[in-house]
Q: What sequence folds into this?
């Protein structure tokens, strides 16, 4: 059972969103999760380690992420940051701030898509951060609430136009994959999800969708942006990371149970993709967890 802290946010039922600006020299809040969406901006935080699901990254001087999904664990740790004045702006808003019918309108199309992607955590590009910097300032200092809300909408709209925004947590870790691809891609992904613990042959997948192996290889890379082998590795790593957080299984057991056939290779690939070893990843969550 997950023991990650379930945060009760200060967001009132009568408010559209909650915003707070802090100046700090260190990060001490543990890994946590909450049902509200959270937009978190950090300035002068170079060296801080950001944890979103199974994504572990060291941030630069500016960082802006959108967290959605009730079960998506996240936290910021001190890392190697030694700045004495780190600025943080946090905006939390309810999933039902927009009614379903409003989000379905054409004008909200890009925002709707962004909120769906945020269920995995979404990191915005430096260019996008610089573009909305003035809006973050405006929202945090504006006293007139309606004007503040209009600025908030403008902020979401501008961020939703960021073509370089990156999804952070893997679907197999966060459990939020949604079938939005063609039927052939869905069929292949479903098979991989159900058989990732064993050997998966490209020829079998190609036969499944009526293609030659070479044609299937090109098709899969075109539709997913990843080679088949990279996609399978990511699925296995997501499940492995989930088990490192939620179970007491030893690392060797998790390695072989998630389809890897070599422990040293598992450790190497995990560190290459996540930035830390499996043991460090587990310790990072363990030391930050709180029983509630």
A:
């Amino acid at each position: 059972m997950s023991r990650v802290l379930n945060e009760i946010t200060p967001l009132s039922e009568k408010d559209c969103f909650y915003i707070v600006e802090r100046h700090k020299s260190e990060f001490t809040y543990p890994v946590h999760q909450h049902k509200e969406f959270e937009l978190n901006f950090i300035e002068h935080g170079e060296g801080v380690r950001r944890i979103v699901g199974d994504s572990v990254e060291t941030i630069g001087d500016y960082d802006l992420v959108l967290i959605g999904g009730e079960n998506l664990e996240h936290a910021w740790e001190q890392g190697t940051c030694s700045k004495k004045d780190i600025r943080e702006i946090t905006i939390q808003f309810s999933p039902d701030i927009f009614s379903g019918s409003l989000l379905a309108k054409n004008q909200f199309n890009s925002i709707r898509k962004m909120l769906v992607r945020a269920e995995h955590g979404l990191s915005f590009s430096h260019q996008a951060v610089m573009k909305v910097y003035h809006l973050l300032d405006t929202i945090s200092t504006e006293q007139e609430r309606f004007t503040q809300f209009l600025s908030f909408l403008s902020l979401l709209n501008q961020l939703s136009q960021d073509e370089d925004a990156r999804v952070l947590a893997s679907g197999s870790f966060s459990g939020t994959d949604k079938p939005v691809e063609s039927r052939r891609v869905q069929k292949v992904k479903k098979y991989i999800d159900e058989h990732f613990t064993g050997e998966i042959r490209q020829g079998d997948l190609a036969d499944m969708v009526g293609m030659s192996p070479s044609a299937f290889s090109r098709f899969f890379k075109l539709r997913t942006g990843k080679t088949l082998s990279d996609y399978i590795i990511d699925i296995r790593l997501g499940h492995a990371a989930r088990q490192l957080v939620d179970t007491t299984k030893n690392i060797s057991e998790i390695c072989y149970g998630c389809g890897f056939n070599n422990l040293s290779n598992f450790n190497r690939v995990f560190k290459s993709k996540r930035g830390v070893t499996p043991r460090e990843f587990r310790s990072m969550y363990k030391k930050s967890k709180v029983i509630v």
